[in-house]
Amino acid sequence: MNRPTLWMEAPSEPDTVESLSRRVAKLERINASLMAHVERTMDQQGGAYSLFQTAIMLEGRVRSRTEELTALMHSLERSNEALQAAKEEAETANRSKTRFLAAASHDLLQPLNAARLSLSALTDLAKGPEAQTIARQVERGLETIEDLIKALIDISKLDAGVVRPVIKPVRLIDLVAGIEASFRPFAERKELRLVTRCDDLAVETDGLLMQRILQNLVSNAIRYTERGGILIAARRRGGEAGKTCRIDVVDTGRGIAEHERALVFEEFYRGGREGEDGGVGLGLGLSIVQRMASTLGHDIALHSRTGHGTRMSLDLPIASQRPDAQVRLAPLATTLTGARVMVVENDASTAEALQRLLRNWDAEVRTFADLAGVVTALGEGLGRPDVMVIDYHLDHGACGFDVVDYLRRNRGWVTPVILTTADHSTDIERHARSHGAELVHKPIKPAQLRSLLAYMLA
């Protein structure tokens, strides 16, 4: 019987040298394969360890960098907080400066107002050319001080952003005509021609600020022009369908050198240029012009040729509708003889100077410091005045319109009112319009006051 087997055995090969060689080669291949596998395993274990070490090292670096960045962020936050605090402090200081200048402007201009009024009365009494010359020199000095104070206050208000323009349609031809009438005597004094060419256009702007801009530009042009003339031109750009208007103020003066053109808009830069009578300007006019133009959103450009002249240009949008028509009454020529004028002024020197000036014009004048004085005089039989000249800011926070309201309410007196103030705020302008009062800014110009009184009394 054959012996059972669990598997089939391969037929045995005789142990020959050849067969042994083959078996040894096979074992060597197996051994090499096993060794390669072990080496790969060791390499993988070594790489993992290396990666582990690298990860630990990178984690430390990341932690260190994170701590540095965190510290830097905290430092930056503290710096930002300090900068914000400094910014708020600067803005608060700027607002305080503006409030101070606005409040102080009344006190700063009051003595100038009294001096101007007294000087005008003195000029009326002065005899001889020498006295007139001295009076004119004093008046010019007072005008310079007044202009400087007003310019500094304007710049402060513009920088603080407290000037808020009231944009509405403005008839340009009326604005230019007013500028021409104001500056023609100054141009004629220097034997210069002042010419205007203006299309009948309505533009979108703030009439008061635009008037100030043109006043500064024309004043500069006259000051720095020795011969020839000044042209104020306004025309629509782009034909009948154009949406903008160009206003040019052109002079035939000495021009502005190229290296000065970027500097003329800076405060107090005058470039050593002398104006009329060898004097120089304050160097603030163009700085104020640029600030006002920026506030209004109007582009301003300068073109100049040395020895030939300068052109200042403004671009304004054309208004979509015409402004309301205004009825203008020509002032009638009349004297102030016998006119009853009530003056309410808390500054004693200004009240005295104003009283003296009005009496020199043959008016009958009563002066009061406040409402209480007026009430007392009413009890003593004070009659109704023909016109009232009232200061806006009275003592203890009182307002000049308190007097007006009292007389209208208790006596039914609807008397013409001239409001005087050194404050140029739009709130006061609105207050004056609501009371139907004529507004005159201090320092009061005597010729302006006399003309206005004659007009109102007529």
TrEMBL record:
<keyword id="KW-0597">Phosphoprotein</keyword>
<feature type="domain" description="Response regulatory">
    <location>
        <begin position="340"/>
        <end position="457"/>
    </location>
</feature>
<dbReference type="InterPro" id="IPR001789">
    <property type="entry name" value="Sig_transdc_resp-reg_receiver"/>
</dbReference>
<dbReference type="Pfam" id="PF00072">
    <property type="entry name" value="Response_reg"/>
</dbReference>
<feature type="modified residue" description="4-aspartylphosphate">
    <location>
        <position position="391"/>
    </location>
</feature>
<protein>
    <recommendedName>
        <fullName>histidine kinase</fullName>
        <ecNumber>2.7.13.3</ecNumber>
    </recommendedName>
</protein>
<dbReference type="Pfam" id="PF02518">
    <property type="entry name" value="HATPase_c"/>
</dbReference>
<keyword id="KW-0808">Transferase</keyword>
<dbReference type="GO" id="GO:0016301">
    <property type="term" value="F:kinase activity"/>
</dbReference>
<dbReference type="InterPro" id="IPR004358">
    <property type="entry name" value="Sig_transdc_His_kin-like_C"/>
</dbReference>
<dbReference type="InterPro" id="IPR036097">
    <property type="entry name" value="HisK_dim/P_sf"/>
</dbReference>
<feature type="domain" description="Histidine kinase">
    <location>
        <begin position="103"/>
        <end position="320"/>
    </location>
</feature>
<feature type="coiled-coil region">
    <location>
        <begin position="66"/>
        <end position="96"/>
    </location>
</feature>
<dbReference type="InterPro" id="IPR036890">
    <property type="entry name" value="HATPase_C_sf"/>
</dbReference>
<dbReference type="InterPro" id="IPR005467">
    <property type="entry name" value="His_kinase_dom"/>
</dbReference>
<dbReference type="Pfam" id="PF00512">
    <property type="entry name" value="HisKA"/>
</dbReference>
<dbReference type="InterPro" id="IPR011006">
    <property type="entry name" value="CheY-like_superfamily"/>
</dbReference>
<keyword id="KW-0418">Kinase</keyword>
<dbReference type="InterPro" id="IPR003661">
    <property type="entry name" value="HisK_dim/P_dom"/>
</dbReference>
<dbReference type="InterPro" id="IPR003594">
    <property type="entry name" value="HATPase_dom"/>
</dbReference>
<keyword id="KW-0175">Coiled coil</keyword>
